[in-house]
Amino acid sequence: MGGTTLCQDNVVIPVVRPFRGVSAEERRDLRRKQLLDGCLEVAGTAGMAATTIDAVSRQAGLSKRYFYESFRTRDELFVALAQRLLAEISSGVLDSMTDSATELIDRARMGIGRVITVLTDDPRKARLFTELIGSELLKDTVGGAEHELAELLTQLLLAGTGSDQSQYHRLRLATLVIVAGTAKAVTSWLDGKLTVSRDDLIEEVAQMSVAAAHTVRSDL
């Protein structure tokens, strides 16, 4: 699998050979992904409290030895999974900011629509995101799931408007409430407690977001 070679200065340099065409680094990356996927399955169906290292390793089809190869603790795994989910959610909002000339309601529909689509296409992600809302777990890493998304929604609504700091912070408060409420609404919708279509759900959240922006900037 591996070996050493001697250079002209008598320094031993390890030689890492791939196993069946896959390098050791690629195998580690694959195992890490398996663990993240396993954590999503367990946490997204049974909840974070029921997500043990044993359960995740078993779901991933790996021994605990490989868990500790990628993560020191269960919380470190949760943080990595949360960061992956937030990156997926955020990319849709960021894409909606590319054209600041677009009408405000259209930007809101596009950005919020992409977020809700990610969460409702995979209910495990919605349930995980809802559990992460308000969690202290991410406070020192990504600032809290709801704060991360509220920040992006505020930027989306005020893109290209030249708003001042006071207006920004006032809207930031409103978007924090909207994000937390939307997470709850999505899980209620998935559980059949809200009898509206997904398009209607997106439209209502978009309209609420625009209304919040108008309380800060009536000229938008």
UniProtKB/TrEMBL annotation:
Keywords carried by this UniProt record: DNA-binding
Stored SUPFAM superfamilies: Homeodomain-like
Gene3D superfamilies in alphabetical order: Tetracycline Repressor, domain 2
GO molecular function terms noted in the UniProt entry: DNA binding
DNA-binding region: 52-71
Domain HTH tetR-type: from-to ranges: 29-89
Top-level taxon: Bacteria
PROSITE patterns registered for this protein in UniProt: HTH_TETR_2
InterPro entries hit by this protein: Homeodomain-like_sf (IPR009057), HTH-type_Tx_Regulator (IPR050624), HTH_TetR (IPR001647)
Name recorded for this polypeptide: HTH tetR-type domain-containing protein
Native organism taxonomy: Bacteria, Bacillati, Actinomycetota, Actinomycetes, Mycobacteriales
